[in-house]
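Internal QA ticket QA-208
Title: Verify multi-chain structure generation after dependency bump
Assignee: T.L.

Test input:
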Amino acid sequence: MQPDTTMTPALEVTVLVSIGRHPVTGRARRADQDARGVELARSLADAEVSLLHAGELAEASEPALRGYLGMGFSELSLLEQPEGADVLPALAETLDAAMPQLVITGERAERGEGSGLLPYLLAERLGWPLVSGLAAVESVENGVATLLQALPRGQRRRLKVRLPAIVTVDGAAPAPRQSAYGPARRGTFETIAGPVSRDEAWAEWQVQPARKRPKRLKIVKAASARDRFKAAAAKAEGGGGQVLTDVTPEQGAEAILKLLREEEVLR
Amino acid sequence: MLDILLPILIAAALALAAIGAARRVRLWRQGRPARVDLLKGLAAMPRRYLVDLHHVVARDKVMSNTHVATAGGFVAAAVLMILVHGLGLAEGVLGWLLLLASATMFVGSLFVARRRLNPPARLSRGPWMRLPKSLMAFSLSVFVITLPSVGLLPEGLLAGAGGVILTLLLALLVTWGLAEMLVGMGWGGPMKHAFAGALHLAFHRRPERFSTRRGGEGRSTGLKALNLEDPEAPLGVEKPADFTWNQLLGFDACVQCGRCEAVCPAFAAGQPLNPKKLIQDMVVGLAGGSDAGYAGSPYPDRPVGEHHGSPHGPIVAREGKALVDAETLWSCTTCRACVEECPMMIEHVDAIVDMRRFLTLEHGQTPGKGAEVLDNLIATDNPGGFDPGARMHWAADLELPLMSQRGEADVLLWLGDGAYDMRNQRTLRALIKVLRAAGVDFAVLGDEERDGGDVARRLGDEATFQSLARRNIATLSKYRFDRIITCDPHSFHVLGNEYGELGGDYDVFHHSTFIAELYDAGRLTFRAWKGGRVTYHDPCYLGRYNGEFEAPRNVLKALGIEVAEMQRSGFRSRCCGGGGGAPITDVPGKQRIPDMRMGDVQETGADLVAVGCPQCTAMLEGVVDSDAEVRDIAELVADALVDSTPSSTPGPASTRQPLAEEVA
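Actual output:
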């Protein structure tokens, strides 16, 4: 199902896919955000898309991985990692060797640590730029991609980024296509060996169902029905924030530090 | 001169017909292999034709008699003609018989001609319009040329100048007749239906649907399972050649009478489906070409001539147009009205689901909410995506006996996914009240129950159907029960007719059947009906799929209700629009199928329509501005119950389980 690569050099895209968890039953499935990432990749013209999963092929997780193959792929690269390993070094090494121009991943895994930090750590290791919350890739020309980033309340921001880059997608990206049984069943797993680094901290952790986190209250000072509607329709976290452009790294760091102090993340 | 010409003409026609037949057979054999008992089928063919097919045709008495005269006359005339004129055996009674046969055929062809004077919209025109003339040409010319053979006319009549012209005219008519009647059989004229139809009856893919000498209704409605074990086995039908050869043969048998079109709810609603056109498109596909030659009603709003296909080309294109548009396939409600009406016993629904299977399993192109519903079925075992642990919440106060605690019961009550639907929960509560009043020893699976897989299967997702079915069968095998009762005809159908192929054989009954039985056994007593006029809507999956037309009516009768029947009821009942995943794929049309059905209800002047299916309830109740109330039979029965009867009429179950008084 790879698009033909005869004319122009194809854009090499790797989508990092993980095993998801259904919110109601907890069954393994395509992770929603990762599947959206795959859908985004499939919508790119002249792209050669490959799927990469770091983990092991277990009976419980195989249908989930085959779910990605069912979106029209003949193979999925399986970077073999035992349960509880830190996949970051292996992923970084594999991507460094394969040198795709674009890496797409979800914001946060649905099971395991799910810290949402992997794309950032990976970008740091590889020294690539990272763009989060992507809604679309508009075009790729001469090694520069024009991206559409999703902001709260349906706003979009157009960004240009030099490739290679890592981008993450969330619920704003287009919904994934249906996974078809036939290609899912036929698809194969191509296993790649990678360095295994044990995650010492993980081994000591205890996993338990998460409690619902308290929501930050919105203080609505509405004078009119229109304001009340706007307040009700707004995302809770979409209120503040500022965009800094053309600042020195020091100024940027300063601003971030200030925010972290305000939010009492740092004391 | 005719003495020399006729044997030559007959021999040439037979030879050409044989060549055409061989070519046609080769077209059918492009299909996949199918396991058919050829000899047994051929032996059974006359009975299938004379009994089962005639039974369907005879619903239209005039047409049936017309066909008996024309076809019977033709077959006799053709055989006798070969003997009399081909082999020159005119002596004795044969010639007279030939006169009689051709005269009968001629009378029949007059009726065919009358029907073609002002044909109803459902009939195809085109070549079919010339058929009565061809029939007359054949019968008349054979009659006339046989007259001298039996001595009714002097042999010398055809001599002389006038004789030559008459001879030429007769020869021309005979040639025309032979060309249409014999050569056309194999070369694709209207008479193809006789050749293909006879073989189709013999090699039908559902031999069990025909009656046998030992009687039996001969009902076969369960879909056939896909082989998912073999990774090489194709998933559904992509190209015409992916059908089995006897399916292709079946398509070719179509006479384009349009009875299917007249009863198709999707066609009436203006959705882009016409069963007759679909079958003709398959014929186009198996022979290759475009649908421009089709001369019947098109798919609503889809002009004829824009689609084309070939035996090894795709039926539905991923993008653009091929032989058939995907919306056509997804418009079907699988109500089987077309199959029930088809005088050629063609299996439209099987073909549609075969093609849907490919779209879902290979393309992943289930339209509308299809993909979401299938994902829910995979992840939560119910189409709504609800928590499987919440399946019994509706019955929190009923303390239903669970199979997991009891291990056995006389009756296993299959709840169906209606357990999540607040409307259907009222039906279920009513049914449980009835079962308890009759002292029935029953139990439910509770949270162990899963969706039966009906919707997944009709949407073409055979893999999910089989996964659900196998897990349900494994659950059911843990417990002992005599029979399954359900108020959902769709569950009834899969449990009763489709699980068997996967290793689950159960005695399944619809709740109306069971209630009728309980009433007959004297375990239920009803108050007299005081409401207004009542009509009854036959659910497709109860009636046409499972042949249960009587029990619901008997229950209503027991309640003291005289059913005001709708014009389309019983085996001709019109679909509510809720089957086959149609509400999920939701192909737009000009009007809604349930609106039309409630129109039928209104025509009877009924204040209330009794139903026996959660889908029908949902669809019919969703009709706005309707005067009639929609109630399930279980609700009507529960409302009419007179208490205290079970103790006075001790049934076998009521002694074992006293009564569920403690929860009432």
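Spot checks passed. The interface with chain A takes residues 231, 235, 360-366, 370-371, 374-375, 378-380, 385-388, 461, 463 of chain B (CB under 8 Å).
Status: verified.
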